[in-house]
Amino acid sequence: MKHSDGGHEQDQAISLLRQVSDVDHRHYDENYVQELIEKAIWFTLHVSREGISAMHRVGSAGNTSNSVRPRKEKKFTYVLNDSDDTKHCAGINCLAVLKSSRPGGSDYLFTGSRDGTLKRWALGEDVATCSATFESHVDWVNDAVLTGGDTLVSCSSDTTVKIWNCLSDETCTRTLRQHSDYVTCLAAAENNSNIVASGGLGGEVFIWDLEAALSPLSKSNDSAEDDGAASVNGLVSSLTNTSMRPIGSSNNISLHATQSRGYTPISAKGHKESVYALATNDRGTLLVSGGTEKVVRVWDPRTGSKNMKLRGHTDNIRSLLLDSTGRFCLSGSSDSMIRLWDLGQQRCVHSYAVHTDSVWALASTPAFSHVYSGGRDSSLYMTDLETRESVLLCTKEHPISRLALHDNSIWVATTDSSVDRWPSEAHNPMKVFQRGGSFLAGNLSFSRAKASLEGSAPVPVYREPCLCIPGTPGLVQHEILNNRRHVLTKDTTGSVKLWEITKGMVIENYGKVSFDKKKEELFEMVSIPSWYTIDTRLGSISVHLETPQCFSAEMYSTDLNITGKPEDDKVNLARETLKGLLSHWLTKRRQKFGSQASANGEIPSGKDTSTRTFALCRIEGDSTGENDHVVYPPFEFSAASPPSIITEGSQGGPWRKKITDLDGTEDEKDFPWWVLDCVLNNRLPPRENTKCSFYLQPCEGSTVQILTQGKLSAPRILRIHKVVNYVIEKMVLDKPLDSMNADGAFAPGIPGGQISHPGVGGDGSFWSGLKSRQKLKPSIEILCNNQVLPPDMSLATVMDGNLKDQIGYVCGVNFCL
C-alpha cells in the first residue's frame, strides 16, 4: 500500500487496522508487520492535521479521539530477581549434558526452567557451579537440546525457538519464530548437528536445518522486505528497514520477528492436536512425535512425509525415545504405561506397568537395554526391557519432569527448582538389581496401582542423591496491598515476604506465618489507583505496566520521604519507576552518544541500521523538564540483584534482559514508544479520574453559615487537612470570593469550582499567612456520613470507601491560629 493523497489508501488502512485488532497477539511473526501497518495508518490520517513534530505527543498512541480505532499498546514488564541469581526460582523443565572434548576438561549441565532462563553448570567431582545464565525467553523454557558441540537450542512458551553459542558468551544468536503457539519439545540428531525438530501446542512440527537458519538473509530478501515495509508506510522512511538486525556480543535482544523469512523449515503436517514429545535417531533420518492424540506418528524428517501411525496408548503421550538405529521406540504416557514399539513391524512389542501415574520422562542406557522413567508419581524407576524386571531407584518430593544420563549417574529434574544427581549404573545395570527390591513389571496399567494400594510398594534403592543443585523457592501466592507500593508474597516453603515494588526488593521477611493474617495486619485505609498488575508465573514477581493506566497513581513527595523536593509536589509512581529501571540505560546512552549530538539535537541510534524512526530524535532533542533524569531513593533499584525487563518495540518481538545489561543502543525498535516518551521527554499520556467532586456543607445542627451551594472538585490525592485549611481560610480570614485565584480554583458557591494547587496547597504552599502542614488544635473536623475523617486521609480514600454522599465540617470551640 503506497502512500498517496487519495482516500483509497486510507480506506485500506482502516480495514487493515480492524483486522489487526482481532489477531491473536501470541502470533508475533504477524504482529511485527501489523505494528508497522498501524503506525502507517496513524501517520496517514494525522500528518496533514498535526504535522511531524506533534505526532509523537502523548495523544499519538492511537488512543485519542482522532484515532480510527483504539489499540492496545505494548506493555512494559519488569521481573524482580532473587538476591542469588545463580539459582533457578521455578520448576526445571529440561536438562542437557555436554561432555568435555578435552582430557581433564569440565563437563557441563544445562538446565532450562519455568523462570524463563537457562543456566550452564560447570560440573566437578562433587560440586556444580553456575557459570552462565542465558536470558532472552519471555516465558517458560520447555525444552533444550545440544548439537554440534557448542550449539544450544531452546524452546519456550513464548512460541520461539532460540539458538545459543553455549560455550562462549550468553548471547542468543538467532530467534526462530515459526510456531503459532507454545513450543513444548525439541529433538536433535546426535550424528547430524544440522537437524533439530520442534513441536508445540499448535499441532505443528518443524524440522530445522540450523546451518540454513543461521545463514544471513540474502540481499534480495532484504530488499524484498524493505520494499514491503515501504509499501505499508510511505510517510516514514525509517520504518522501511525491516531486515534482520545482527546481534552484538553485549546484546541478546530477540531478533526480527519474521527473521525466518529467508529460510522456511520443513513442516511435518498431520497432527490435529498438541504435540508434547519428539525424538529422532542418531543420523536424523527418522522422527517420531506424540501428544494429545494418543498416537505415535513416524516421519521422514528429510521431506516431512508421514511413514506410519502407531496406536496403543489411552492418554496423552508425554515422552519418546528412539534407539540409535531407529528401529525401536519407547513411549511414556499419561495412562501410566511405557510401551516399546518395533517400527519395522509397526506394532507394540512390550508394555510396562511400572508407574502409578503419568509418565513424563524417559532415558535409556547406551545399549538401549534398560529404560529410566519418572513422572507424576515422583518416582524414578529402572526397567530391563527384555526381562521386564524393574527397580525403584529413588523417590522425590515433587513430580519428575526430565532425566539426563551422565556416565554412571543420572540427573533428575522436578517441578521444584532444584536438580539432583543419582547413581544409575548405566554401564552395568545388573549392579542395581543385585541389591534386591526388584519386581516384575506388569503389562496392564492397573497392576502397579493395585499393588500400591495393597501395600506392596517397592523400597527405593537410594535414599540420598550424589549431588544436589539447589534452587530458590518459587512464589505461589501474592497480594497487592492498598498502598500500591507493597506486595505480600508466599513461596513454596511457606515463607511470607513483603516487597517494595518501586525498588524491587524485599523489605521484610516474616518467615513461615499465616499469609491471610499478615495481610490483615498490613491493611491500610488508603486508596491509590491500581497502576500495575503482577503475576508469579515465572516463580518471581512480574510487574506489568500498560499505558495509560500505569500513570494514574500519584503521591506527595512527603509521603515518599523524598528530601530536597517540596513536600506537596506530586510524584507519578510509574514515571519514577521507569526512570529508576532505565537509569543505567540512560547513563550508557549518554556515554555513547552524548558527544555525538548534532546541531539539531538528533542522537544516533546505535543500531546497525541505515535509518531510524524520527520520534526518538525529537524526544531527546526537546527534553526540557526539570530534573528529568534524577532517580529518587524510593525508586532506586539494586545493582546487586537487578530486575529484568520484558518488553518489545517496533521491531523484533518481545525480549528480556537485565537492566544492568542494557548497553544504551536500544531505542524505539526495542522499547514501546510511550516508555521512551516518559523517560526521555518527561511526558505522560492524558489521564482520567485525577480529580473528584464533592459538596462541603455544615454538619446537621451547626449554626455556621453555608459557604457554598455548589459542587467542589479537587485532586484525588488531596489530604483532608487541606480541606480543613480551606475551611479555616473561608471562616477566619473571611476572604471574599473575588480574591480567590482567577481560574475559580476551589470556588465556593460556583458550580464546578476546583481545589487547585495555589488555592489550597494541593501541590504548593497554602497561603502567605499559614504555613503548609501547620499543626492545628483539634478544633475543626471533617465528616462524611457522620464519620470523622483523619487529617491524613486522601479524598480518593473517602470516595472509594463508600463515604461519598457528602462531606461536612464542624467548628470546635477552642479554635485558634
UniProtKB/TrEMBL annotation:
Spans of repeat WD: 134-165, 176-211, 268-309, 310-351
Domain of life: Eukaryota
Keywords (A to Z) from UniProt: Repeat, WD repeat
Biological process annotations from GO: double-strand break repair via homologous recombination
GO molecular function, one term: ubiquitin binding
PANTHER family on file: WD REPEAT-CONTAINING PROTEIN 48
Family note: Belongs to the WD repeat WDR48 family.
Name of the protein in its database record: Uncharacterized protein
Species of provenance: Fraxinus pennsylvanica
